[in-house]
Specification:
Blueprint: E1 2-8, E2 16-22, E3 29-38, H1 41-48, E4 58-59, E5 64-71, E6 83-86, H2 96-99, E7 126-127, E8 133-136, E9 146-150, E10 154-157, H3 163-166, H4 172-183, E11 191-195, H5 199-211, E12 215-219, H6 223-231, E13 236-238, H7 241-251, E14 257-262, H8 269-278, E15 279-287, H9 302-307, E16 311-314, H10 322-334, E17 344-348, H11 353-361, E18 367-371
Parallel strand pairs: 4-8, 11-12, 11-14, 12-13, 14-15, 15-16, 17-18
Antiparallel strand pairs: 1-2, 1-4, 2-7, 3-5, 3-9, 3-18, 5-6, 6-10, 7-8
Helix pairs in contact: 4-5, 7-8
Length: 372
């Protein structure tokens, strides 16, 4: 069938909306009519070239939810009309990582940016009208009105789920929340610094608050984002890591924060070094942000790493397990323990995707959402 979707033809490049040809679902696949898609910074990293992909043109979007239109043959567990939230990380359920409860590390993730079907690197679900293959972001491409995906990427949710909010559970919420709760292991009474309050950092604040941190220090140069962090539970909000470090030390008899979480829009080694300087002995820096994947080097004092037993911990999707944690976070939302509505700053049509990313760059959004 035909669909419309936002693609980039090269990197650096800008998203443009074009007509596309979409495959019917095969066995183990679903065709989904999109309801909403979050506009994550990672898709902007694709456009800038910070994250090179395997196929151009490339259809973006990896955070979304929709309603199943067609189920592939011999594909149990799903029916037309079911609502699904996508996980940008597929879970095969069979590899070493899935089998040990680390499905965010599933081996299928090696092909997230290849653009092809995970099971066949030469097979593509999307094509230009002239037959040119179009890569799918994370195998799902939520910047399309309809998309065909593997069941490994879809989590069924109850029929009364508000997908315009729940779509955020597929990336930003789990990534931020899990960065505090799973990767940072924030405990009651902790002092936590969150560096960068966007779609990820806002949820790191929520996760730290939920885990019982008594001091949650949000850091962002944009006043609107600092205000948003405080509305989500941050106890303090400052413009710089220097201010955050002094605050954390003042709360801890000079020791520093227990956990510092790096969720800036475009990460540099210096950001990690600032967070490293903000934590106490045996403290943890959680690195969640992305930037130029080819950059190497973190300017930290090696002696502190050894003698103070400080830790630098990477976090992919906040160490969450999508198939179990997306429903769990939806339950937290329903119970009033997790805010989703407040995260959606502005809504856009698919044709307004360019303006949505301009608003992100100018600090106007915690999360922009495309509504179909």
């Amino acid at each position: 069938m035909k669909t419309r979707g936002a693609i980039i033809r090269q990197a650096p490049g800008k998203y443009e909306v074009v007509d596309l040809e979409l495959d019917d679902p095969r066995q183990g696949e679903l065709r989904v009519k999109m309801v909403a898609s979050g506009m994550c910074h990672s898709d902007d990293h694709i456009a800038t070239g910070d994250m090179p992909v395997g196929t151009y043109p490339f259809a973006g979007g990896h955070e979304g939810g929709g309603i199943i239109d067609t189920v592939g043959p011999n594909t149990p567990g799903f029916s037309p009309g079911d609502k699904v939230v996508f996980s940008f990380l597929p879970g095969c359920g069979k590899c070493r990582w899935c089998a040990t409860g680390h499905s965010n590390m599933c081996d299928l993730g090696a092909l997230l940016l290849a653009g092809s079907r995970f099971t066949d690197p030469e097979s593509f679900r999307l094509h230009m009208e002239d037959g040119t293959p179009v890569g799918q972001m994370c195998g799902i491409s939520t910047f399309c009105e309809y998309t065909t995906v593997a069941v490994d990427s879809a989590v069924k949710v109850p029929e009364d789920t508000p997908l315009d909010k729940a779509c955020l559970l597929g990336c930003s919420v789990g990534t931020g929340w899990g960065s505090a709760v799973n990767a940072g292991k924030v405990r009651p009474g902790d002092t936590v610094v969150v560096q960068g309050i966007g779609g990820i950092g806002a949820n790191a604040v929520q996760g730290a608050v939920h885990a019982g941190a008594v001091n949650v220090i949000a850091v962002d140069p944009v006043a609107f984002k600092r205000e948003m962090a405080q509305s989500l539970g941050a106890t303090h909000a400052v413009q710089s890591m220097g201010e955050a470090t002094e605050l954390a030390q003042s709360f801890t008899n000079g020791q520093g924060a227990d956990v510092a979480i790096v969720t800036v829009g475009v990460i540099k080694g210096e950001h990690v070094a600032e967070a490293f300087g903000a934590i106490r002995k045996m403290g943890t820096v959680v690195v969640t942000a992305l930037g130029d994947l080819t950059e190497v080097g973190i300017p930290i004092p090696i002696g502190e790493l050894t003698l103070f037993e400080k830790k630098i911990q990477g976090a992919m999707f906040g160490m969450s397990n999508p198939s179990s944690d997306i429903p769990r976070m939806l339950d937290l939302y329903r119970a009033g323990h997790l805010k989703l509505d407040e995260l959606v700053t502005n809504e856009y049509s698919l044709d307004e995707i360019g303006r949505g990313y301009e608003d992100m760059h100018t600090g106007k959004n915690i999360r922009g959402v495309i509504r179909y």
